[in-house]
Write a structure and sequence with these properties.
The complex is a heterodimer of chains A (306) and B (139). Chain A has twelve helices and no strands. With 306 residues, chain A is mostly helical. In chain A, helix 4 packs antiparallel against helix 10. With 139 residues, chain B is mainly beta. Chain B has one domain: Crystallins (Gamma-B Crystallin, domain 1, Sandwich), CATH 2.60.20. In chain B, strand 6 and strand 7 form a beta hairpin. Chain B is globular and about 30 Å long. In chain B, 63% of the residues are buried. Classes of the chains: A mainly alpha (306), B mainly beta (139). Chains A and B meet through helix 2, helix 6, helix 7 and helix 9 of A and strand 6 and strand 7 of B.
Chain lengths: 306, 139
């Protein structure tokens, strides 16, 4: 799958929404919540204006990450290489194809980058992940392989299996790029943005808003980490939903999401501006890997047709 | 905007006294391997090859690694917290799995489709040594 030439590596512009997170719904909630928070609101600075819904949380670095479509291409090429490697050892396997639509439907995007921010998801799932069930696809082809065959697939401490070899083949020949550096920047801009005065002021407004709703927490992290809910267990209590709904509503009405996103995006823009060569190399590396994967798939499909 | 290091330290310290190494499953995955039905995380690059074998596998979500310790090659507890210490991953669980920067499935994240490997986690958004939670999409 080729990269687009429109200033993006093809990353989705609008992550899928899990509920009524559109502008109208958000605006209605904002009006209600803002009114609730107004009485005890610090005088300054005012909430940052800007993004008003989860779907708008698209960051500059996103353009350098893989899209669901690209992940499907890379995944399917990997599957084809695994099948070829196993066939050389006399074993026929058929890993199921990666579906970009399924990947896109479940991908959380940036909806939890600033903590939980999706009001509709909070209302139905509290702080728990809101995602449709995903089928377990391994059992169908790899789960019942005999032990010796499993070793050929998964490898051992001494030898790489076909899964590892496929990964190495896919990456072979791609121009080197400093992905570790980008990963670090991705985490750092989030953490540095959290210290921006506009964000710390918004946290104080969030506190005030939450207090008015009857929930006293020093910061959003304390609310999601409240010992009354266990995110490792599937059960979601009404209390959790209540607090998570107030939390997300206050995050938007206090301008916390908008301020944090604005500071984060500004930092990312500056990093890209100051490191043009590094980003060009990242884009070239992804382009080469995708090109290789596409050629492998075309070759694989050609063989299947013949 | 994450749990303070001090708070995380308390949790990790508490874990040292309360957390026990889980009972070894019938099929688990030390020594660079990772068999079907689980996501395997490794403290070192390249699935711990040539390094101390600190590993752990998951079959379901875990929202906060602060109370988890790495296992040794012989399944004993290493007493080393695995919070922010993951360097490579193998996904054999049968569906996608996402590694998160912060507890509660928040912050930056990277998703691994089933049967994918990453011997150098720094190649992904989550980065090296920055993983605090895992969510497994089909469990």
């Amino acid at each position: 799958m080729p990269l687009s030439n429109t200033g993006s590596a093809g990353f989705r512009a609008w992550p899928p929404e899990t509920g009524c997170r559109g502008l109208i719904a958000s605006a209605l909630l904002l009006v209600t919540a803002t009114a609730a928070c107004r009485a005890d609101e610090p005088a300054a600075p005012a909430p940052a204006r800007g993004v008003t819904s989860v779907s708008q949380l698209v960051l500059p670095f996103d353009a350098y990450k893989t899209t669901p479509e690209q992940r499907a291409v890379l995944g399917n090429a990997h599957n084809a290489l695994v099948a070829r490697c196993m066939r050389k050892q006399g074993v026929t396997v058929a890993p199921p194809a990666e579906d970009p639509a399924a990947i896109a439907a479940i991908d959380p995007g940036n909806s939890r980058r600033y903590g939980v921010t999706d009001i509709a998801a909070a209302r139905s799932h509290g702080y728990h992940l809101a995602r449709p069930p995903s089928p377990d696809t391994t059992a169908a082809w790899a789960g019942k392989l005999p032990k010796r065959t499993r070793h050929r697939l998964y490898g051992t401490a001494a030898n790489r299996g076909c899964l590892d070899r496929a990964t190495l083949t896919l990456d072979k020949g791609a121009r080197k790029a400093d992905w570790p550096w980008l990963a670090l920047q991705d985490s750092l801009t989030l953490e540095q943005a959290a210290k921006h005065p506009s964000v710390t002021a918004a946290v104080r407004r969030w506190q005030s808003c939450m207090s008015q709703a009857g929930h006293t927490y020093p910061a959003p992290e304390a609310a999601i980490a409240d010992g009354r809910w266990d995110l490792d267990k599937p059960a979601v209590t009404e209390d959790e939903k209540l607090v998570a709904t107030a939390d997300t509503t206050c995050k938007w009405s206090a301008g916390l999401v908008a301020a944090w996103y604005a500071a984060d995006a500004e930092l990312q823009r500056a990093v890209i501006r100051d490191n043009a060569d590094r980003f060009a190399a990242l884009r070239a590396n992804l382009k080469q890997r995708l090109g290789r994967a596409s050629r492998l798939l075309a070759e694989h499909e050609g063989r299947q047709v013949r | 905007m994450r749990l303070s290091k001090k708070a995380a330290g308390f949790v990790a310290a508490a874990a040292l006294f309360t957390a026990l190494a889980p009972t070894a499953a019938a099929v688990a995955s030390p020594r660079s391997t990772c068999y079907g039905g689980r996501v395997c995380l490794y403290a070192g690059f390249d699935y711990n090859r040539g390094q101390v074998d600190h590993w752990r596998d998951f079959t379901q979500d875990d929202s906060n690694f602060a109370d988890n310790n790495w296992l040794n090659w012989d399944f004993s507890n290493s007493w080393h917290s695995m919070d922010n210490e993951t360097s490579s991953v193998r996904n054999r669980v049968g569906c996608s799995a996402t590694l998160w920067q912060h507890p509660g499935y928040t912050g930056a994240h990277s998703t691994f489709t089933h049967n994918s490997n990453d011997g150098f986690l720094a190649n992904n958004a989550i980065g090296n040594n920055r993983t605090s939670a895992i969510d497994i999409w089909c469990h």
